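ARCHIVE CARD
Drawer: 12
Card no.: 0347
Subject: one protein chain, sequence and derived structure
Cross-reference: see card 0346
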Amino acid sequence: MTVADARDVPPGQIREVRVGEEEIAIYNVGGQFYATTNICTHDEAYLSDGELFGHVVECPLHGARFDVRTGKVLSLPAVYPLKTFEVRVEDGKVQVRV
């Protein structure tokens, strides 16, 4: 499903999108796009309000860090990984498989 124009998510940025009931964060890491659930698994903060450092997103609430490529937890206080989604860009449109 198309969720955004690629130009609306510049490199190093995060954008929140909704697909049905699913809240998703789209990340642009040097022109490569990734998608995870937008809610931190530790305390339900929006990751789209956090910071992106390369492939790492930091939760704005308590500083938990996750690898946006895999959803893997990189630092406490989170202990559960993020759900990830398959992403592709076609004709300048970011598409996510939910």
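Annotation on reverse: The radius of gyration is 12 Å. The chain has a mean pLDDT of 97.
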